[in-house]
Design a protein that fits this description.
Oligomer: single chain
CATH class of the largest domain: Alpha Beta
Number of helices: 10
Structural class: alpha/beta
Number of domains: 2
Number of strands: 18
Distance between the termini: 44 Å
Amino acid sequence: MDPRSEVLLRQADLFQGPLLLAGAPADDLLGQLPKAHGWTWHAGDQAMLDSRFAGRSHYGVEAPPVAFEAAVLFLPKSRELAAYLLNALASRLGGRELYLVGEKRGGIEGAAKQLQAFGKPRKLDSARHCQLWQVTVEHAPEAKPLESLAERFTLDLEDGPLQVVSLPGVFSHGRLDRGTALLLKHLDNLPVGHVLDFGCGAGVLGATVKRRYPPSQVTLLDVDAFAVAASRLTLAANQLEGQVISGDGIDAAPGDLSLILSNPPFHTGVHTNYQASENLLKKSGEHLRKGGEMRLVANSFLRYQPLIEGALGNCQTCAEADGFRIYRATRG
């Protein structure tokens, strides 16, 4: 069981009523707290929770419309996302209890200071390298629309400016990361057809390719509901059409693709996790049509080339700069 869940269960008598677990981990916590509902923005966690606790886990960027008398936020990595989530929960908990749980190395002590906006926070427990905080919401805020927290910026590309809309918690929030910046310089001679932007984040790659190659059908895929929402906003800001879908990894992607583009993710919360990226590389051939291409950017220290060669039989390095490499491979 997730250590944060273990800390909650040490205080289980506090959580016997209608409860919302925001950022709920995909463990047995819902089984231990029968009146609780989960809220997650991770498509993989949602699939696992829904398979075990049907109807009790909810996926999306807004708090689900279920009744709850108290809420627990499992601290996310992003401080901006934590602020949005705390506001969303506190706006529905006037006079009631809001809890915050997280790992010490994830910054729980600093994050707990955000509870001061709602009342007088106090630390209830410290165990399993985690802390549990509680506040009675004396000052319930107004709920802020998520879009009001968007960071908007413009990329000056060869074919004109591209508007990017980023949301709290999305990778490289409010700025262009160096890996994607390098890949944007190497999008020439792409095959036209069905294009997948894997791990789309705010939709920079998918929007760029759709504008540069209008005949292509573009699908943007991410595991994170906030990234899915941001990508839709980015496409709309540039009057571009594309399908944006949520799913846990390449298994959720369509088949018969002409091109897979990616700056693959390898972080989950405060932990490093290469599984989604490695699955993408190993299974790319199952989703590419014959002659289809995969082009991606990755940190130079990651040994992706052997995985790509194992899946597609070939791999070339197109460019290397700023600690990143561009890889290109074609399905024979």
